[in-house]
Every structure is written in C-alpha cells, then in structure tokens.
Specification:
Elements: H1 2-11, H2 13-16, E1 21-22, E2 24-28, E3 31-34, E4 48-49, E5 61-64, E6 68-72, E7 76-79, E8 81-87, E9 99-110, E10 119-124, E11 137-149, E12 152-156, E13 159-164, E14 169-176, E15 183-187, E16 190-194, E17 211-216, E18 219-222, E19 225-229, E20 233-239, E21 242-245, E22 249-250, H3 261-264, E23 268-274, E24 279-282, E25 300-301, E26 307-312, E27 321-323, E28 334-335, E29 340-344, E30 356-360, E31 366-367, E32 372-375, E33 379-386, E34 391-399, H4 415-422, H5 432-441, H6 458-477
Parallel strand pairs: 3-5, 5-8, 6-9, 7-9, 8-10, 9-11, 10-12, 11-13, 11-14, 12-16, 13-17, 14-18, 16-19, 17-20, 18-21, 19-22, 20-23, 21-24, 22-25, 23-26, 24-27, 25-28, 26-29, 27-30, 28-31, 29-32
Antiparallel strand pairs: 1-2, 3-4, 14-15, 30-34, 33-34
Length: 478
C-alpha cells in the first residue's frame, strides 16, 4: 500500500500543484495532500505531497483524504486552508476520499475564509461517491485541543463530522488583515450541511448529499450558525457543553431550492440537546462596553417544518436555548411557527408543580408555535407558549408507562401514592380497585432497570391492607 502510494506521489507531484493567485503575482497557493508516508503526524513535512510542513507559510491549502487519518498532538500551527475529506475538482484521483484528523492537544489556526471553502470538513464536488465509507470527513477533538478558524463548513455536498470533546474549544473568528501583524478578531459563521438534494443545480452538480453534524461536549463559539443551506441536512448536538452565538440560529434557509415537495422534505435543520448541564446562548453581545451601530441578526429563525428541536431530559431537566439579554443592544426573538419538537422526558423525576423551560426569548418576541410535538418516551407534558415573556415551557407532566398504582404520576409506586388514594385523588376515588392496584405495584419503578427498590414484605402489605380496609368499612357506615 505504501509503495503504491509513494509511486503515485512521484507521478502526480506536478498535477497536484495546482495554483491560484493570492495577494500578488509572486504568491501562489499550493494544494498539499496528506500521504502518511512516514507516520500520521500532521506537523511532519514528509507526510505531505509536496513536502511543505503545515505552518511553514500562510499560502498553502492542506487536504486529508484518500481514506487516510492524521493526528495532531500539540503545539500551535497556523495554515491558510484545511480540508478534511475532500473530493474537490483539484483532487479527483481515486474513488476513496474519506479523511480524518484527530486532535489530542495543541492549537490549530486556519486563517482562510471558511465561506470560500478554505476550511471544510467533508467537501465533495465530483466524481460522485455513493459509498458512505469512502467519502466525507471527520475532525475529532479530544483533550485540551483548540481550533480557531475564519469560518467553517461541515458537510458540503457530502457528510462531515466535527466532534468537540469535553475540554476542547472551537472559536470561529475573522482574520483581520487591516492590522499589523494580522490577527484573529470578531466572530465568524459556521455552516452545518450545505448543498443537498433540494438544491436547484441546473444539472451542473448531480449527487448532492450535504450532511453535517457538530457534536459539542466542550466549548463552541461563532457568529451565525446556518443549517441545511442549499437544501442539505445539518444537526448540532449539545451534551453538557457550551454554545455561544454572537449572531443568530438560522434553521429555515434554503437558497436556490427547488419547489419539489419530496426533495424539500429531505432537508433537515436539527438542534438536539441532551441533559441539563449545558449552556446554549444565542445573540450574545461580544463587547457590552461598545455599542455596535449595526448589530447582527440575533434571532432564532426556525419557521419551517424541516426545523427540529429535540430535548432529552436528565434528572435535572433540560438545557434551554436562551436568547441572551443584552444591556445596550437589541436582543433576539424566536420564530418557530411550524417547526417540530421532540421530547424524551423519562429521566426527569417530575412533581405536580414541575416546569421546564425549552426556549427563553426576549419578551414579546416569541413568534408562532410548534407544528408538531412528539414524545419519544413514556412521559408527556403540556407545551406552553408565553408570548408576553417570550418563553416556551413544559408543565403538567404525565406518565403513560402504565403503573396502575402510580397515582401521582412520578414513575414509581410508593407511600405518597397511598396518600393520594386516601385523600380521594386516585383514578377511581377511594375504591378497593385502586387500593388493590397500589398494593400490587408498591415498590415498583416505572422502569425496573433504572432503579432497584426492595419489595415490601407480605406482612407489611397485609398490615396496611387490614388497617385500610377497617378504615374504609368505618367510612362507608357513616
């Protein structure tokens, strides 16, 4: 395998050095591709064709594909462009263009514009690759890894994955060339899913299959977050991490899309939030001491049936999406008319007074209601829209799991359920049937695999039943 790869390296060296003019006539960008001929080290020059070590200039554009994986373990490296998993026109050789970069530490900086395709994870034009195992790109961040980039596209025309580990940081920042030395400045955009089946390509780019996924366990910051642009599929998953957007959350955009309803239905813009330990802020003013005369859009734009909000609760509830309240600049609203809501509330130990906030928008700037609500577990709730205060929240939780003696609907049968029966608030108030149901289910959790509760002794239940039936008989005689 390595011999063949080295031969190809020699034969195609000149065909791989495609150039485009940047800055001046004397400055040319070289497309440099990872070949892994020495090992997997990203920073080692001999692992690249041609042998230009990343960080040696701010001109070259680096690519990892051909089914190869590279590793980045430390230090700070700055490059003009990086494409992980690319079958772009300048590199069409072979039928395998999957690529992976795994970071375990260090800082990687990409100064080129992500919007112009200079930083992409999963980027395909042609030829068309139908085998999922042979296409797309992955960037996996573990340990104390940091990426600072001038914008990013994840899943352009193909699949792409950015996984941000618990201690890892990703920041989208503009590259400011107006100062000397050049440096990163304000925040920049990210696009998740770009160019899909619904895009009206006029026959120029068949096989579009943009599918982007960003999985956040650590920290992520950007300006605007665009989903499913040009008819693709994009998803953000938040599991205990932090997402801060200085701009908006845009889930209803479909530039140049066809009117075919079948193709349009294949779009997906999804935000999935797991647990209650994360943070999700939209529209955060990055510098409260300076008033921006033209502040950016700071709204949630999700008025589309292909926009999906999914919340999976833990014992503490859920992480709400918060429209940050800025002191001296406008704060954003939420347009959700017709969007979909998915809820899995089974792990939340609710009470009759429980309330969970899903979206916390600016007062009077909540627009519309969800077009559909799907409960994925055995717990349901009422979805409420407080248009005055800008909130979407849940209350009136109910268990649909089927424990007949669970009169307080908290997922188990215990002494509190007996009190509910005794006070006449069970399904059939004060009936022997409800009492028997409580006896049969006493000590049983809704999901026996989630809790281990010792069963009561037969003597204990007999004692309770004897006392209760005596009380019940005296009550009937009155």
């Amino acid at each position: 395998m390595k011999t063949a790869r080295l031969s190809a390296k020699k034969m195609t060296r000149f065909t791989l050095i495609l150039a485009l003019s940047i800055v001046s006539q004397d400055c040319w960008a070289v497309f440099v591709y990872f070949d892994g001929s020495t090992n997997t080290d990203f920073n080692l020059a001999t692992n690249w064709t041609p042998e230009n070590a990343p960080g040696s200039n701010l001109v070259d554009i680096y690519g990892i594909d051909d089914g190869l994986s590279s590793t980045y373990s430390g230090g700070t490296t700055q490059v003009k462009g990086l494409r992980v998993g690319s079958a772009a026109k300048e590199h069409q050789f072979g039928d395998t263009h999957f690529g992976r970069l795994t970071m375990s530490g260090g800082t990687l900086e990409i100064t080129g514009s992500g919007a112009e395709g200079l930083f992409g994870i999963g980027r395909e034009r042609e030829p068309i690759i139908t085998d999922d195992a042979k296409k797309g790109g992955e960037l996996i961040m573990n340990g104390s890894s940091t990426i600072i980039a001038n914008g990013l596209i994840v899943g352009e025309r193909t699949k792409g994955l950015l996984s941000i580990g618990q201690n890892s940081i990703v920041e989208m920042r503009t590259w400011d060339t107006t100062v000397v030395p050049n440096q990163f400045g304000g925040t920049e955009d990210i696009r998740i899913g770009n160019y899909g089946p619904a895009y009206d390509d006029f026959g120029a780019e068949p096989g579009l299959d943009g599918r982007g996924l960003v999985d956040v366990h650590g920290s992520f910051m950007a300006k605007d977050m665009y989903f499913s642009e040009h008819g693709a599929q994009g998803e953000l998953r938040l599991s205990g991490g932090t997402v801060n957007l200085n701009g908006g959350l845009i889930m209803d955009l479909c530039d140049n899309c066809q009117s075919n309803p079948v193709l349009l239905a294949q779009r997906l813009a999804k935000v999935s939030i797991f647990g209650s330990s994360g943070t999700f802020n939209v529209g955060v003013d990055p510098d409260p001491l300076v008033v921006d005369p033209m502040p950016p859009l700071r709204d949630i734009l999700a008025a589309s049936p292909t926009a999906v909000f999914s919340f999976t609760a833990d014992s503490g509830g859920v992480t709400p999406i918060t429209l940050f309240q800025n002191a001296s600049e406008p704060s954003g609203g939420a347009e959700i008319q017709g969007a979909q809501l998915e809820l899995n509330l089974d792990a939340f130990p609710f009470t009759p007074t429980s309330k969970l906030t899903l979206i916390d928008a600016t007062a009077s700037l909540l627009l519309g209601q969800f077009g559909s609500v799907t409960f994925l577990g055995n717990t349901t709730a009422s979805v409420n829209y407080d248009f005055t205060n800008g909130d979407v929240f849940l209350n009136n939780f109910q268990s649909t799991g089927g424990l007949a003696g669970d009169f307080d609907n908290d997922g188990d049968v215990d002494g509190h359920d007996f009190l509910v029966w005794q006070r006449g608030n069970s399904t059939t108030p004060l009936s022997p049937t409800d009492l028997a149901a409580w006896q049969n289910d006493y000590g049983t959790p809704l999901n026996a695999t989630l809790a281990s509760v010792p069963e009561p002794s037969a003597g204990f239940l007999a004692m309770i039943a004897s006392g209760v039936m005596g009380w019940y008989s005296q009550r009937r005689k009155r």
